[in-house]
Every structure is written in C-alpha cells, then in structure tokens.
Write a structure and sequence with these properties.
Number of domains: 3
CATH class of the largest domain: Mainly Alpha
Organism: Amycolatopsis saalfeldensis
InterPro entries: Homeodomain-like_sf, HTH-type_TetR-like_transc_reg, HTH_TetR, MT1864/Rv1816-like_C, Tet_transcr_reg_TetR-rel_C_sf
GO molecular function: DNA-binding transcription factor activity; transcription cis-regulatory region binding
Helix content: 55-70%
Pfam families: TetR_C_33, TetR_N
Protein name: DNA-binding transcriptional regulator, AcrR family
C-alpha cells in the first residue's frame, strides 16, 4: 500500500475512534510514520486530506454499486440498493458522516453518480410499469430518505435503536412511489395517459429502437410532457 493510501486509511481509523469526530494531521502522520511535509505534499492541508477521505469513501461505495448485476426484478434491486447503502454507512460511520457533511461547499461528482445509478434502477421500474412518478423525482426522494436514515443510525445510534428502522422507512418510501405488483395505479380521470407515457419513456431509455437519435429525443420530450398530469402542466 502506498503512503497516500496508508494516510487515508489512518485518517479513517482515527475518525472512527475520535469522540469529537475530528482528527489532527499530526496524529495521521504519526500513525503512518511520516513527517508533516509528506501530508502537505500529498493533500495540501487538513481540508485536502478530509476531502480525499470523502472521495475515497465514495469510490468504495460506488464500487459496490457498479459491480451489482441487475436482476430480472428492478423493485428487488431497488430494495437491495437501499440496504447496501445503509450497510456501507454502518461499516464506515465516520467516513459516511463526512461524505454527506454540509460543511463541504462543493458536492463531489461521485455523489451525483450515486444518484444517477439509483435513477437507472428507477427507469427500469418505470419500464416495468411499477413506478408512479418520474424517475428523476423518485430518485431524489429515495436518496434523501436513504441518507437521512443512514446518518441517523450512524450519528445517533443510542437514539435510533429500532433494529427494523431502515426497513420500515425503506418500505414506506418505496410504497409511496411504486405500483404494487399486479396492480394498476389508482384511477383518476387522466391517470392512464401519464402512466402510459411514463412507462413508454422508460422503455425508450432502456431498450434500442429503430428511431434515430433526434426522433427519439423528440418523442421523449413529448412523453415526458404527457407524463405530467394535466392539472399540473404549465401552459
């Protein structure tokens, strides 16, 4: 393991052991057996070190997401995605708190990739006729809830003692966004059209067609517009 990786690993261990969730650059250097100039050369300063710890955390988190093979059931994949997110947070509590800390001015691009990967699963759910709303909106709601639960569990474990908390919240959030298997969405005067448009748009995004790129984009634009219930469309 190179010195940079050793310092990132040492920083994470020190963060996990720190009662005030803070570390000193001196402690990191001592743990690895190098001088402060090495840390400054590799990371610039303490903030640079912590930013690198965050990037390293997201890299490990995304590695599990990228390696996941889609199953034939996108809803099951959605549940698995939630559970692996929480499991990662529990396994790396200090790093996870940093990953989603409001103290960082810039959101890492890897955080956007995590949202994109979630959206891909939701597009598959929509293509299967299982999603009630737009995949982009659903992804934001699920990710916000997933992060909230994970942060609660790792930041205040003495308060959130229900062992089924994550599962209960997961199911409640998913139930609000997904159509039950074998059932159709609740009927409204204009429900069939938005639902059909949402499903067809999802299929176009996941399966090849004989349409050209411009034709596909134009059709998607129309379908995305039709997927919004008439009472909520802007005129």
């Amino acid at each position: 393991m190179d010195v940079r990786s050793q310092m990132l690993e040492a920083a994470e261990k020190l963060l996990d052991a720190s009662p005030d969730r803070d570390i000193s650059t001196r402690a990191v250097c001592e743990a690895v057996g190098v001088g402060a100039p090495m840390l400054y050369r590799l990371f610039g300063d303490k903030n640079g070190l912590l930013s690198a710890v965050v990037d390293h955390g997201f890299d490990r988190y995304l590695a599990t997401k990228r390696a996941a093979e889609p199953s034939s059931d996108p809803v099951a994949d959605l549940k698995t995605g939630w559970d692996t997110h929480v499991a990662f947070a529990k396994a790396h509590p200090a790093v996870y708190r940093l990953m989603y800390s409001p103290s960082f001015a810039d959101v890492p691009s890897t955080a956007q990739e995590a949202l994109r990967l979630l959206r891909e699963v939701l597009v598959r759910c929509a293509a299967a006729g299982r999603l009630r709303i737009d995949p982009d909106v659903a992804a934001q709601r699920i990710m916000a809830a997933n992060i909230g639960v994970a942060l609660s569990l790792v930041s205040q474990p003495e308060t959130h003692t229900d062992p089924d908390l994550s599962t209960r919240v997961r199911d409640a959030v998913h139930d609000s966004l997904l159509v039950p298997a074998g059932k159709k969405p609740a009927k409204r005067a204009d429900a069939p059209l938005p639902g059909a448009a949402l499903q067809l748009a999802a299929v176009l995004r996941t399966e090849p067609t004989s349409l050209g790129e411009q034709e596909t984009q134009l059709l998607l634009k129309w379908l995305d517009s039709l997927a919004v219930p008439s009472g909520k469309r802007s005129h």
